[in-house]
UniProtKB/TrEMBL annotation:
This is Unannotated protein. The keyword Transmembrane applies. It comes from freshwater metagenome. InterPro entries: ArnT-like_N, PMT-like, PMT_4TMC. The keyword Membrane applies. Pfam families: PMT, PMT_4TMC. Its main location: membrane.
Length: 512
């Protein structure tokens, strides 16, 4: 059947909203920045796994590779003036590390700027978290062509507790999530640009899409290559980035199938499997691998890195052989990590936030540290905003229905982001894992919730009464999210509060 080529561009690439949406995106980003930067050095402690990564970051600055540390290195670090060059906390030997170097190099940038203080080793992470709010808002807007959805998604990320806590702690997970988000955004841009180019070829160059079984070639895909670089960087922070690499590349190939269908290609699946899959898999794989390997540059250039001289010889082959052996040891560490931990959690429980991770706890009974009563508590609890997460469960169910029942590709895209960050952990139920790993897919959960909330307004031709009721419901949801963020902010940021007020915030016994 002949297609209406006059409307092809609009069908392939629906127009963006008339207003840019930058004002609302910047507003929610400023909100996120204030919450993440305010009193960033509190608590003045080495919290949770900060006992690893900030010191590794310092070693990278000093030696190019991670080094062993002396006894009581954390205490020496906290008691110092933060001068990274004078700290005497390292041994002469390189140390084994469980994660690639890139995330620690990024933490090191904050230490270079501010010093080896809690503020210093959290600064880069906080900036990454702030940028994630902005990028989420812009991705959600492009995905849905809605300024409202973009603003809501950005606001939900800004006010989520797990994202906030991880943005204020010198750990790697928020950095991993940032590169994953960047990769998703680049794939989304590639989708729009490729479809627009196809529409131009057909409408203006007179190419017949269905003249051949495979249709026109898609041409160069620099945005897809850039997405592969971002995925390589994600893997250079934590290996779990590989799950997103596989999921997003497959997602982009399915988008190619839908583009070919839209322009009338007779065999869209076959055309994609034979024309797009081999080149995409090979080129993306090479880009990801080279990018990942480049993150180990400091280890290659040093003679002090752990396992650096495992293979005999001094050439490239020997270096790569040593790195491969190092990776086998890292793999053995990860799959064998079954140590009991009080705050370990099962991935099935993550959507319910039933077992958040306590990063820091102190009871204060001497009216010190800002405590104005006889008994205060101070805690940093990596707990998601309950309204966002519990409403998010319903939102995900709704988006599954949109995907299956309505074939909505936007719902499928968001679900891919959630699934890639959550479902792989089901393979490691006996491994020691934590709820805060969910920070990687918090932006996708926020977009799912924003899309579901906006759906309450009804279709474009909905009645004024329907739109009014929908807006009231959205307003109530936003108000509840803000109220929950205000209520839990003290236990997200380690503020000393009266002990009875801390107890009032422990809604579940498993939160303690």
């Amino acid at each position: 059947m002949a297609r209406d080529t006059a409307s092809l561009t609009q069908r392939l690439v629906p127009p963006m909203p008339r207003t840019s949406g930058w004002t609302s995106a910047i507003i929610v980003t400023v909100i996120g920045a204030i919450l993440r930067l305010w009193n960033l050095g509190r608590p003045h402690e080495v919290v949770f796994d900060e006992t690893y990564y900030p010191k590794d970051a310092l070693a990278l600055i000093r030696f190019g590779v991670e080094h062993g540390t002396v006894k009581d290195a954390d205490k020496i670090l906290l008691a110092s003036d933060g001068n990274i060059w004078n700290l005497q906390i390292f041994t002469d030997a390189g140390s084994f590390v469980a994660h690639p170097p890139l995330g620690k190099w990024i933490i090191a940038l904050g230490e270079l700027a501010v010093g080896a203080t809690p503020t210093g080793w959290r600064l880069s992470v906080a900036i990454i978290g702030i940028l994630s709010v902005l990028i989420t808002a812009r991705i959600a807007r492009r995905l849905t062509r809605s300024n409202l959805v973009g603003a809501l998604a950005g606001l939900f990320v800004a006010l989520d507790g797990i994202h906030l806590v991880m943005s204020r702690t010198g750990l790697l997970d928020i950095i991993l999530g940032f590169f994953v988000l960047v990769a998703f955004g680049l794939f989304l841009l590639d989708r729009d640009h490729t479809r627009k180019r196809l529409a131009t070829l057909i409408e203006h160059a007179g190419i017949q899409a269905n003249a051949t079984t495979w249709g026109p070639k898609f041409g160069m895909r620099p945005l897809r290559w850039a997405a592969a670089i971002a995925l390589g960087l994600a893997c250079g922070v934590k290996w779990s980035g590989i799950y997103f690499a596989i999921a997003f590349i497959l997602m982009s190939l399915v988008w190619d199938v839908s583009a070919r269908k839209a322009i009338g290609v007779k065999r869209p699946w076959r055309a994609t499997l034979l024309r797009s899959l081999p080149s995409t898999a090979a080129l993306s794989g090479v880009i990801i691998l080279l990018t990942y390997t480049a993150t180990w540059t400091g280890w290659f250039l040093s003679d002090e890195g752990w396992d650096r001289s495992w293979a005999a010889g001094t050439g490239v082959i020997a270096a790569l052989s040593s790195l491969l052996h190092y990776h086998s040891e890292m793999w053995n560490f990860h799959v064998g990590l079954t140590t009991e931990h009080a705050y370990a959690s099962n991935p099935w429980s993550w959507p319910f936030q039933s077992r958040p991770t306590s990063f820091q706890w102190a009871d204060i009974k001497d009216r010190s540290q800002g405590c104005e009563v006889d008994y205060c508590a101070s805690e940093v609890l990596a707990l998601g905003n309950p309204i966002i997460w519990w409403a998010g469960i319903l939102a995900v169910i709704y988006q599954v229905w949109r995907w299956i029942g309505k074939r909505d590709w936007r719902s499928a895209a968001v679900l891919v982001g959630i699934a890639a960050g959550w479902l792989p952990w089901m393979m490691y139920l006996n491994r020691t894992i934590f709820t805060f790993y969910t920070v990687v897919f918090v932006p996708f959960l926020a977009i799912a919730l924003a899309m579901s909330a906006a759906a309450l307004l009804g279709p474009p031709d909905a009645t004024a009464e329907r739109k009014k009721r929908g807006m009231i419901a959205i307003t109530i949801l936003v108000a509840l999210v803000i109220a929950a963020a205000w209520w839990f902010y003290p236990v997200w940021t380690g503020q000393p509060i009266p002990y009875n007020q801390w107890q009032m915030r422990m809604w579940m016994p498993t939160w303690i």
